Amino acid sequence: MIGPRSPSAGALVGNQPLLFFSGSFTTVALALFFGITGTLVFYTRERLHHTRRKLAESELRQSHQEQLLAETELKLLQAQIEPHFLFNTLSSISQLISSEPELAVRTLENLTTLLRASLARTRSGESTLGQEIDFGAAYLAIQATRLQERLTYQIDLPDALREIPLPPLLVQPLLENAVIHGIEVKPEGGKVIFSARQIENELVFSVSDSGAGINETASSGGTGLRNVRDRLRLRYGPGAFLELTPADPCGVKALITIPLISKPGDNAATALRTKP
To answer: What pLDDT does 224 receive?
Structure first.
C-alpha cells in the first residue's frame, strides 16, 4: 500500500515561493553572495596590485634608460674638448712662443690641465668642486690669453668646500656660456665671477658675467645649460636646480643649488643627497 505522497520541491515552490529564502537555504545564499563578493574584491585588488607593479617596473625601466642616456651623454661630453677652442688655443700658443714665451708656456700648461682632466673624467663619473674649479680656472686663463684685456675673471671658492663631491660638467658649461655668449660677443668684453657658498644644508654656486645679457644671447636655452638641468634632475631630483637671472648692472647670473648631507662634527658637508 502506498502511503501519502510527500509534496515535491516544485509544489513547495509553487505553493510557498518564500520557502527557498528561509532556513538553511538563506545561509547557503549568503555564503554564496559573500564568497562571490570576496572573490571579486580579492581579484580586483590583485589586478590593481599587478597593474601598480607593472607601472612601477615600467617607470623604473624608463628611469634607468634615462640614467643610461644621461651617462652616455656625459661620457661623450667628458671626452670632448670643442675643436674650435682647441685650435684657437694652439694658434695662440704658437703666436706667443716668440713674443711672450712665458705666457705661451703657461697657456700650454693650462691646456695640458684641461686635456688631463678630460681624460680623467672619462674614467670616473665623480669629481669634486675643487677639481671642477681647477678645470674651470685653466679654461678661463686660456680664454683670457686669447681675448686679452676683453676678459677678466675672479674665482671665490672657500677651501672648506673644495672636497665636496660633485658630478663633472656642472661648472664648465656655465663658464663656457658666460665667455662665449656673454663676454665674447660684447665689443668691450667684461668680467666672469665664480662664487660658491654653503648656506645651511645647501651648496650654492654661481657664475655671473657682465656681458651681453640674457635677452641678447642664446644663454637661456643653450644645449649645455639644458644638459646641466637634466643631470641635476636625474641625479638629485627636485631639490637641485639651475636658475638664470639678469646680473647687476648687466650680463647674466647662473646659479645652481644642490642639497647637502652634513656629517656630525663636519664644518662643511661632504656628501650630496642622491635621488633614490
So the answer is: 76
